[in-house]
# Entry
Amino acid sequence: MGKKKDRRKAAEDDPALVAGVAVPAAATAAAAEKMGRKEFEAKLEELQVELCHLQDWVKATGARVVVLFEGRDTAGKGGVIKRITERVSPRVFRVVALPTPTEREKSQFYLQRYIAHLPAAGEVILFDRSWYNRAGVERVMGFCSDQEYNDFLRLCPGFERELVHAGIILLKYFLEISQEQQRERFLSRMEDPVKHWKLSPMDTESVRRWWDYTDAINRMMLATDTQFAPWYVVPSDDQRRGRLNCIAHMLSAVPYEAQPFAPPDLPKVQKKPDAVPEAPMYRNIVPQAY
# Structure
């Protein structure tokens, strides 16, 4: 667990990870060359082993963890969530990416539909966008009134205080990128057919409204960056470094310990009965197209 302690120390010492410090992504990414794939995959594998240790600890202790991923469009929220969940159980690490609220949900208390997805014992909930939609896209695109927006900024710190007081480990990450990098990623999505599903008029509108979103982000940080539930900014112009840094920080922020593993005995195969056919009688076989 030495590496885990080193990561915790680095998280404490690195000013880029201190809540309330908005680190420009371009300035951070420019300080080093973008990471190569082989180096990224080797370091990611180490972190994914630790994520499995975290999973065992959560199951053994009944811990409850909530991780929020917010950020500008194309900053890589889905990418970092995918790397977190690749090697762990979906019954422990659950991803919540809620669609546009229904008419019924719009009539509810705003936080109500998010409360329904909070973790039970032994669960880690990863919110791919969260209740902070109200402080971001809803505010910028005019989907909420000034009164609803101001009420959210007033109520949100108290809501998060209660989550932490109830014993939930709450982590909030904001993935930041430069304006130039965001434009490049949108152009890449337009050219790549497997990324077309990531494009929507709502997303591309964020390019035009860059400064409106900047103002909304600043207001959100000012109102909701608290000692008990701080924001952590993840510079993500270099996606690979951003993913590794975010996962490493998440591991450093949870006080998990590797759990002892006792592999089960592999039983002997039962004796074959005389009446069993040599092979199962399958009716339909998938054609060998490859």
